Amino acid sequence: MNLVWRAVHAEGTLMEQLFGVLAKVTWKPVAHIMLLALLRNAFVTSPHYFRYWDMVTSNNLAVASIPPPTGNMLGGAVTCSCKLCKKFVKFIRSQDLSRKFMGTETERTHLMNYKAEFGLQYKNTGKGDVRTLELRKTMNDKAYTDQKKAQDEHALACNLCHSLLHLRPQPDNVNDTINLLNSVVLSTPPPAVYPHTTVQVTTPITSMNIGGGAGAGVGVAHAPAVAPVAPAVGVPPQARPPVAQKHIEIINLDDD
Q1: How many CA atoms lie within 13 A of 187 on its CB side?
Q2: Is residue 228 within 8 Å of residue 241, measured between CB atoms?
Q3: Structural contact between residues 150 and 76, judged by C-beta atoms closer than 8 angstroms
Q4: How many of the other CB atoms lie within 10 Å of CB of 44?
Q5: What's this model's pTM, rounded to 2 decimal places?
Q6: Does residue 233 have a pLDDT over 50?
Q7: What is the per-residue pLDDT across 158-192, written as a single tens digit (0 to 9) for each?
Q8: Of 29, 76, 116, 157, which has the most beta carbons under 10 Å away?
Q9: Are β-strands 131-137 and 120-125 bridged in parallel, bridged antiparallel, or unpaired?
């Protein structure tokens, strides 16, 4: 993907198609950080780089900015954003073991669709179309497994936010994304190894001559690793990444 980006960067239509692929690709989150690290030196002022960084940062902040579940809180995702589901999310993210919901048969059925995914017991009381639905958490093995998974995902997202602060585009325009990123970085300990420093570029493609003539070819050159960037305003000195201690051959991100 690094090579594809460099090949089509100057082509607006092709870049739009590439962003469509990047938005749908099922990479692990750290793979996006590695690609940003490979691109940053050459494209730090590019609006395309800013767009990609903003997309990756927003996805990570969606996880890192929400406290992970503990105690009686349940992990897992609710994709519906209707008014009733928003109340349901508050319930599963709370320490309460049970909660009652008033709703029509259609609304109650909508909530009961979550019972298997979240290990919930339920009971309907009352008469008529609008009744009371009581949901109760069982806190079974699956609940604790999902909770641990959510905690691990949160910890990783926070670590990636530390790297994203150092990979931010230039010029460094302060906006809501930067402010939220700063708040995550300031409230979490820096990682022992910053994820973006674990990639060492050895023989990257720095320029490509794409054409049908006899002179078409590929230019290859050595490039330095990602240069350190000073932390944004308010970020403590300890948030600066350490010098990478090991060199890792570039990996094929498309296989992940």
Answers
A1: 12
A2: yes
A3: yes
A4: 20
A5: 0.65
A6: no
A7: 999 999 999 999 877 778 888 999 999 999 999 99
A8: 157
A9: antiparallel
Measured on CA atoms in the order 42, 46, 49, 54, is the torsion positive or negative?
positive
Distance CA 174, CA 195 (A): 23
Q: What pLDDT does 200 receive?
A: 65
Q: Up-side HSE of residue 95: CA atoms within 13 Å toward CB?
A: 2
How far the first Cα of the chain sits from its last, in Å, is: 12
The domains of the chain, with CATH numbers, are 2-68+146-255 (no CATH), 83-138 (3.30.1370.50)
Which ranges of the chain does DSSP label H, i.e. alpha helix? 2-8, 12-24, 29-43, 47-64, 83-92, 105-112, 115-118, 141-166, 176-187
DSSP assignments along 27-88, one per residue: --HHHHHHHHHHHHHHHTT-HHHHHHHHHHHHHHHHHHTSPPP-TT---------SHHHHHH
| Residue 1, both tokens | 């993907």
* Tokens coding 163: 């790297």
Q: What digits encode the pLDDT tens for the residues 199-219? A: 765 544 444 433 333 333 333
